[in-house]
Every structure is written in C-alpha cells, then in structure tokens.
Specification:
- The complex is a heterodimer.
- Helices cover 0% and strands 50% of the residues of chain A.
- In chain A, the strands form 2 sheets. In chain A, strands 2, 4, 5, 6, 9, 10 and 11 form a 7-stranded mixed beta sheet that branches. In chain A, strands 1-3-8-7 form a 4-stranded antiparallel beta sheet, with no helix packed on it.
- Chain B starts with a strand and ends with a strand.
- Chain B is mainly β.
- In chain B, 0% of the residues lie in helices and 53% in strands.
- Classes of the chains: A mainly beta, B mainly beta.
- At the A-B interface, β4, β5, β9 and β10 of A face β5, β6 and β10 of B.
Chain lengths: 113, 117
C-alpha cells in the first residue's frame, strides 16, 4: 500500500540525548515535511524539503536537524539543544505544489525524561 | 504573516445533530489555498477538502459541506446528521500559493468534536 511510515510510534529518551525519528514514503512525492504538535495546539512546521539534498527551515527549526539523501526518506533528529522536545511529531509528503494536499504519517510520540 | 483561527476548542453534540466548525484566516496573499483535515484518535491527519482563493463555490459531499466566504475570510465546515465516527479533532489550514514552493501549511489550533449517542 502507498503511504507514509513513521517509526517508532512511541519513543522515550533521556534528557540530553539526541534522537532520530524515521519517515519513509512510497508515494513518489517530491516534497516532505516535519510538523510538531503540542497538546491543544495546531501543527507547527519544523523543516521541509522540496527535492533530494535540499531542505529549508520552517517556523520552529531550532534544536532540530534533517537530511534528505533519498527521495523516499526524510529523517528528523531532535538534538539536545531542543529545550522542550516532548511532543507528537508528524511527517508528511506532497507532490510539491502549494495547491496540493499533504499526506501524513501516523506520527511519533516522543517523551523525554 | 499568515494566521488561522479556530475559536471553538471543543464541541459536543448528540448523534444526528448538525454541527458547524468555524475557521477564520488571515493572509496578505491574493492567491492561497485552504484545507480541512481530520485527526482521529489514531493520530494521522486525513485530508478532507481543498479550496483555492478564486473558487468561492460552496460544496456538499455526502454529509459534509463547506462554506467559503472571502469577504469575511472564513472557511467553515458543516457535518450534517453527525455520527459517532465523526468524533475527532478537525484542523483548518492555509497555504501560500507561490510557484515552485512546497505546500507549507499554517494550521489552526483545531476543534475537538465529540459525538455521543
């Protein structure tokens, strides 16, 4: 089935550790995105990528890093510099034009203790 | 800067009632796109509808209908004869429409809809 796969679904990490969230898509989409969702808030854009080997900061990129070495993959690293990393992280992809809808994965819930 | 406001934090209705979810947006762009997404308890966002700023024709799709009014910057969503399966968080979102850019979405804070028997 075509879609977006995020893993793991739940992730626990100790404070001060870096952690990488996986996102893979088989929709042949050019653009991929990472959003963060906090309780009672909407989604906020962390990073996005329109093509392989290129990515741009979103509204809340501080403390995060990404790579886009393959079209299908867009991993997100939450670094120790991120002050409040506990959140629900959603990966999405789209054809790449502003008029098109984005397709979302099922999310990774990260808890830092 | 773009902004999307969903003033209703939570709505509770009894099954078969009609319910309208409000969305008000702000943008300086003359061309833009508006979306509604549904987030069930499983977590993923499910796309429901897209409208561009030049298309104010309202639409009905089954039990769903949308009312886009550019004059009031509103894009409201109505569920007719609600069902328990409609219980979810609903997000309104806005994207810029610049050629070559990805679909960067600005989301509202969401409206949690609870439909009970």
């Amino acid at each position: 089935d075509g879609g977006i796969t995020q893993s793991p679904k739940y992730l626990f990490r100790k404070e001060g550790q870096n952690v990488t969230l996986s996102c893979e898509q088989n929709l042949n989409h050019d653009a991929m995105y990472w959003y963060r969702q906090d309780p009672g808030q909407g989604l906020r854009l962390i990073y996005y990528s329109q093509i392989v080997n290129d990515f741009q900061k979103g509204d809340i990129a501080e403390g995060y890093s990404v790579s886009r070495e393959k079209k299908e993959s867009f991993p997100l690293t939450v670094t120790s510099a991120q002050k409040n990393p506990t959140a629900f992280y959603l990966c999405a992809s789209s054809i790449g034009y502003a008029s098109t809808e984005a397709f979302f994965g099922q999310g990774t819930r990260l808890t830092v203790v | 800067a773009q902004k999307v406001t969903q003033a209703q934090t939570e709505i509770s209705v009894v099954e078969k009632e009609d319910v309208t979810l409000d969305c008000v947006y702000e943008t300086r762009d003359t061309t833009y796109y508006l979306f509604w997404y549904k987030q069930p308890p499983s977590g993923e966002l499910v796309f429901l509808i897209r409208r561009n700023s030049f298309d104010e024709q309202n639409e009905i799709s089954g039990r769903y209908s949308w009312n886009f009014q550019k004059s009031t910057s509103s894009f409201n969503f109505t569920i007719t004869a609600s069902q328990v399966v409609d219980s979810a968080v609903y997000f309104c979102a806005l994207s810029e429409a610049r050629t070559g850019t990805a679909s960067k979405l600005t989301f509202g804070t969401g409206t949690r809809l609870q439909v009970t028997l």
